[in-house]
Amino acid sequence: MIILAVDYIQIIADIVAAVLNFLYPIVSPMGLWMINWMDYVLQFFPQDDLTIYIIIAIVVVIIGAIANIAWPGNKRPGILKKVDEVEEKIERKLEELDEKVEAKVKIVEDKVEEKIAEIETKVKKKAKKAKKKAKDLEEKADELEERVEEIDAKIKKKKKQKKVKTEKLEEKAEGLEEDAEELEEDAGELEEETDALEEELEELEEISKMLKKN
Amino acid sequence: MGRFYNTTKGVIFMSIYIVTTMVIPYFTFTFIKNMELLGVAIVLEQANYERIIYWVSTFGLLISSCAFFNYSSPKQSIRKGTFALIQLILNCLYIWSYKFSGATEVRFEIVLELVSIGAITVNVQNMVMLYMGTYFLTILLKGYDFLDFIINRKAIREKRYKTTIGGKEVS
Q: What is the pTM of this model?
């Protein structure tokens, strides 16, 4: 089967039509939006005066020619060179400032280190003294503890002695109480004996009186 | 890439755009205006013809001037991006001006022996809408380029101003 030139055209047309049909629902809304804003914009374009467009075209071409001759883009523009110079100056000054700051920082650091060393030595001395004092205090504390222990022991001894003494005294008191009771009993007996003797005396006196009378 | 190169490039592209947007459409519509097919005269209406030629000339001028600015500008420069975008929008307006001037719905009268025997109306509005959709996508792309040129301006400039000797960069 021989494919004629017309057939080729038909095939190409079919392919193009298929592509267009596929793209139509996607691209057509965009196209519609474009048409809307363009309809609006075209209202402001002069519709019967070609000179305005000619003037605009000439102005654009002249400006384009001047701009692209003056700044072709292969060299850095003069303004940018100045900007670079200013930036370089700023960088230099910044570097100088950095150096100054670093030098000052070093000086301050040295001073700080010296002071730190001094403080450290002072602190060490004070620490030594404090250690010595602490040792002394510990010794004193030990001594005091020993003394306290001794005193405790003495107190305990005295307490024991007191206890013994009180026990003895209590025993003695008990003995005395018993003696007192015995004495009281003896006194009672003596009283009774004295009463009996007094009665005997009275009887004797009465007897004697009677005898006298007689 | 110097002044002469930029200007020449701009002039060449301006000429191309003058030919494609003004000269060819002018001759095409002038040819169509009094076309004769198989002995039958197909006449484009005079009012339509004048409107089409007017809008073709106006937007052709603007597009060509923008093309000069665009193509004579250095690569990846903001001015190139700006004028490329303007040129694209003008292109849209140019194409739409065909519809606006009546070119998308052209009425041809068929005249046989000085007697009008009928008319043909060619409506290409849908095709223009499809074309506009693709133009919209192109505008988005150009807009992205424009933003890219602005954002990466410093890097582009540094790359452009780097001097090379024997293919090697010299800082």
A: 0.54
Rounded to a whole number of angstroms, the CA Rg of chain A reads 69
In Å, how far is B96's CA from the nearest CA of chain A?
7
Task: Please determine, for the modelled complex, whether the ipTM score is greater than 0.85.
Answer: no
CB contacts, 8 Å: B72 with chain A: 64-65, 68
CB distance from B13 to chain A under 8 Å? no
Reading chain B (171 residues) residue by residue, the pLDDT tens digits are 678 888 899 999 999 999 988 898 888 878 777 766 666 666 666 666 787 788 888 989 999 999 999 999 888 888 888 898 898 888 888 877 776 555 566 666 666 666 666 776 666 666 666 667 777 777 888 888 888 888 887 787 777 766 555 555 554
Contact A65 B58 (CB under 8 A): no
Which of B67-98 are b and which e, b meaning 16 or more Cβ less than 10 Å from the residue's Cβ? bbbbbbbbebbebbbbbbbbbbbbbbbbbbbb
Interface test with A, best of B1, B3, B138 (most A CBs within 10 A): B3
Chain B contact for A61, CB < 8 A? yes
Amino acid (1-letter code) at residue A139: E
